[in-house]
Specification:
- It contains 16 helices and no strands.
- It is an all-alpha fold and about 350 residues long.
- The protein has 2 domains: about 1-70, no CATH class; about 70-345, no CATH class.
- Helix 6 (about 155-180) packs antiparallel against helix 15 and helix 11 runs antiparallel to helix 12 (about 255-280).
- The two termini are about 30 Å apart.
Length: about 350
């Protein structure tokens, strides 16, 4: 973590990206060879160990040449004390967030059985993919770049709005396609045996928009040096998630669990963004919410279009998926142009 943090501090994102691409290309053939040699799932374990060791070795070699960084022979609390207050809340946030993210799986497996857990977990993981692919690309670079302007919250807010609008617009399209194309997505990716996961995925996908935006808040809190309120947000969202899952379990309906979790994420968006505006960026909340009115219009229009697409009489799953993707994408692009949102889709590089 230390060598990687130093590379992020230097904004050497290109080097990090090259290594993130190169290391899987190196380890994957080795993993396949080990699996073919009869190591079975141990090949995956060894791949993780090999990837971690290779990443550490390359990063450490780089920072050693730049800074002369060496690993001391004895343990010293001096470095820990300097960042303790800052890092403690970040550690607690990560701990609470991990608990919140996995609690539904633990309880679903306990109260509904392993078969139901399999379908729910498949739907949940599929729902996470689109949001993680976008936010995990953007958020790692936010703190190193924006932390230079820690005392200029107005500047951070202006840059953050561009990021939020980009993610918001992408999220509207993703939610519309995932919700109305849930059946086709599951069948194409996993096959007919996973069809029971379709309704869970459809409900969970409604939360993708809010999750994509909330996924950036941690980096903004760290950019302004306020890890404490990041932890507070984590505690609030965890409590809300626990309540939502508990109500679903009490109804003895797994679909209710998925529906409650999705609704919980939507409510969490309202609270988390209020706290970020009020404590993190110190900006007015309602003007911030008003920037999403074009997305609200898009959601209504795409909802109507999606309802019509559900009536497609085609037997081919691939044809239905292609038509839904093209129609929803075409309507989305037209709405972006009509509502003047195209500028946000190409604003991240500025």
């Amino acid at each position: 973590m230390v060598p990687n943090a130093l590379l992020l501090k230097d904004k050497d994102f290109v080097l990090i990206a090259k290594r993130n691409v190169a290391i899987p290309l190196i380890t994957s053939p080795v993993t396949v060879g080990m699996a073919a040699a009869g190591l079975s799932y141990y090949a995956l374990v060894l791949q993780s160990l090999f990837s971690a060791a290779l990443t550490f070795g390359l990063n450490y070699f780089t920072v050693y040449r730049r800074y002369g960084l060496i690993i001391p022979h004895r343990f010293d609390f001096h470095g820990v004390r300097r960042i303790f207050n800052y890092s403690l809340f970040q550690f607690l946030f990560s701990l609470v967030n991990y608990f919140a993210r996995n609690l539904d799986n633990l309880l679903v497996g306990k109260f509904f059985g392993t078969a139901a857990l399999g379908f729910y977990d498949k739907a949940y993981r599929l729902m996470v993919y689109p949001s993680s692919m976008l936010t995990h690309v953007i958020t790692p670079v936010l703190q190193p770049v924006l932390s230079e302007y820690q005392d200029d919250r107005q500047y951070i807010y202006a840059k953050y709005i561009k990021i939020v609008k980009f993610l918001s617009l992408c999220g509207v399209f993703i939610v519309a396609f995932c919700y109305f194309g849930a059946d086709e997505i599951v069948l194409i990716l996993f096959g007919a045996q996973w069809e029971p996961a379709v309704p869970y995925f459809a409900w969970l996908s409604l939360s993708v928009w809010g999750q994509m935006i909330m996924g950036t808040t941690g980096s903004i809190y760290l950019s302004v040096g306020d890890s404490k309120h990041s932890f507070v947000c984590g505690c609030i969202t965890t409590v809300m998630t626990i309540i939502a899952i508990t109500l679903g379990i009490l109804s003895n309906d797994l679909l209710a669990v998925a529906r409650n979790v999705s609704l919980s994420y939507i409510l969490q968006f309202v609270i988390v963004m209020y706290l970020l505006m009020h404590y993190g960026l110190r900006q007015p909340y309602w003007p911030f919410l008003r920037i999403f009115w074009p997305e609200a219009v898009m959601a209504v229009v795409l909802g109507g279009v999606g309802q019509l697409l559900l009536q497609l009489p085609l037997e081919s799953v691939l044809c239905r998926a292609a038509i839904k993707f093209l129609v929803i994408g075409g309507v989305f692009a037209l709405l972006c142009w009509l509502l003047g949102q195209v500028k946000y889709m190409r604003s991240l590089h500025r």
